[in-house]
Predict the 3D structure of the following.
Amino acid sequence: MPLLQSCKLQRPKYLFNGHLETVFPALFRKVILPPTAQDFVETHDGDFLEVDWHRRGNAKLVVISHGLEGNSSRSYVLGMAKQALNNGFDVLAWNYRGCGAAVNRKAIFYHSGATYDLETIVNYASPSYQEIFLIGFSLGGNLTLKYLGEKRKLDPKIKKGVAISVPLDLGGSCDKISTLAFGLYTRRFLNSLKQKIKKKSAHFQEEFPLAKFASIRTLRDFDNTFTGPLHGFFDAEEYYQINSALQFLPDIQVPALVLNAQNDPFLSPTCYPTQLAQQLDQVHFEFPIQGGHVGFMQSDPQQPFYSEARAVEFIYQDS
């Protein structure tokens, strides 16, 4: 069920391909938006999650979930938070386990299907708000859609969801980003993940044997070695199959928007399910030609990024 769009995407001329649209904002965009408060939220298993609040006394809340190796202070998170604040929403941006400033208590960290932590955040915030809207980027988009589509009783305050640059097929996207053509992205993610594992190993040596680093060359290797087994999956393939949001889309019962640019260098062809798009009433798909991965920068620097304007426009309609 397509939606009419009022905001338009017009990228800067110097960002003439998906790689530039991806890398330039990640490296050079600056958004100044200090949180009004920071908090630690206790989890069901005795761990904690760090959250940043951006409050202006509104009755409606946007919960923002970041991408792989991101955090609540990334420019794309703050840009979305600013756009939501300017349109009458409070914002909660949360950090996954291992992505905040403090070392978590448990050995597990985060993964693309860890909806138990998103549920913790929703339950924590819900008493203070009349309506809740979920926005996720990349890995956080997969997390958001899986959460909405799982066979659970959703908090009735959750009204809509938005997933931006989302790897609906985790395995296909992981393999694409791990090809030689995209080695720069893989090295950047792996370097960050390995540094995180080293910190965890100081507290949990048995779960994080550093000797296994030598065999890790791709993100699939990393998920085979650490992410899958640590979180109860046999290997990376089982982890991808169980947690890919693609299979959860038909069960989503609230309006949701999937915004994936066709030139996104991270996404496999299976992340653009055009046939499925014709079958679902609640999930709206938009596949603009341009945008890159978590990019969507506009040519007019005074304008919010297209993804920010489109997301808030979507959740604002009929809200």
